[in-house]
Amino acid sequence: DIQMTQSPSSLSASVGDGVTISCRASQSIANYLNWYQQKPGRAPRLLIYAASRLQSGVPSRFSGSGSGTDFTLTISSLQPEDSATYYCQQGNLAPRTFGPGTRVDIK
Amino acid sequence: QLQLQESGPGLVKPSETLSLTCTVSGGSISSSNYYWGWIRQPPGKGLEWIGNIYYSGTTYYNPSLESRVTISVDTSMNHFSLKLSSVTAADTALYYCARGDIVMVVATTHESFDIWGHGTMVTVSS
């Protein structure tokens, strides 16, 4: 099975900061990588699909990059509403594994 | 606007079968452009993919659950269902249903869960 890891497991940053979250697959998954945002008590929300494609309605401060085994989610200018846990997921290969999540807090 | 709503018992006894239904409203479940999935989240933990069912009827399950899981679709009722047998306390979780979108990106298809239900909490306890 493909294992997904994320780093860091949590981070704290100030409003306006740039934030980067990493996701690594245990084997190449090309660009079959999605990113989700989950706020407490809410269902996850799709942010990025195919590693770098912004889902409709998602603010442009979110961006994704990477291919193969290493991927990155970037928030260019952190906003208060971005406080959440972020999960990567490999999208096309069985099992459709999620990463363990990265919690982002606002200082 | 498409919406998904999970329903089913909130309490299941150990060794019994957990049964949940996801009702789709605002759109048809019968579309080859989409698939349907179940994901769960134990309290305070991360997301675990359970399985998907496609328009063709093909199913894919998490190998860790495959021997106990069945996902099916009822197009007449516009809903899909999850059955998980022989449950234990480890199956206690918030269960989400979701729509899977299939998108062509540079001649390859990409899958992602683009619409989610609110989730339903299932506790396994005697």
Can you describe what's shown?
The complex is a heterodimer of chains A (107) and B (126). Chain A is 0% helix and 49% strand. Chain A is mainly beta and 107 residues long. In chain A, strands 2-10-9-4-5-6 form a six-stranded mixed β-sheet, with no helix packed on it. Chain A is globular and about 35 Å long. By secondary structure, chain B is mainly β. Chain B contains no helices and eleven strands. In chain B, the strands form two sheets. In chain B, strands 2, 4, 5, 6, 9, 10 and 11 form a seven-stranded mixed β-sheet that branches. In chain B, strand 9 and strand 10 form a beta hairpin. Chain B is globular, with a radius of gyration of 14 Å. The chains are: A mainly beta (107), B mainly beta (126). Chains A and B meet through strand 4 and strand 5 of A and strand 5, strand 9 and strand 10 of B.
Task: From the structure above, extract its key features.
heterodimer; A: about 110 residues; mainly beta; 6-stranded mixed sheet; 4-stranded antiparallel sheet; 10 strands; about 0% helix; about 50% strand; B: about 130 residues; 7-stranded mixed sheet; about 55% strand
Share of helix among residues of chain B?
A: under 10%
Greatest interface? A-B, 27 and 27 residues
Strand order of the largest sheet of chain A: 2-10-9-4-5-6
Helix/strand/pairing category of chain B: mainly beta
Q: How would a textbook summarize the main sheet of chain A?
A: 6 strands, mixed
Please report the distance between the alpha carbons of the first and last residues of chain B: 39 Å
- Give the distance, in angstroms, between the N- and C-terminal Cα atoms of chain A: 37 Å
How many strands of chain A?
10
Helix-strand pattern of chain B: EEEEEEEEEEE
In the predicted model, the low-confidence regions of chain A spanning at least 5 consecutive residues are: none
DSSP helix count of chain A? 0
Q: What structural class do helix, strand and pairing data of chain A support?
A: mainly beta
Q: Determine Rg of chain A (CA atoms, Å).
A: 13 Å
The proportion of residues forming helix of chain A, as a percent range, comes to under 10%
* Residues in β-strands, percent of chain A: over 45%
Low-confidence stretches of chain B: none
Estimate the mean pLDDT confidence of chain B: 95
Beta strand % of chain B: over 45%
Helical stretch tally of chain B: 0
Shape of chain A: globular
Query: Helices and strands of chain A, in N-to-C order?
Result: EEEEEEEEEE
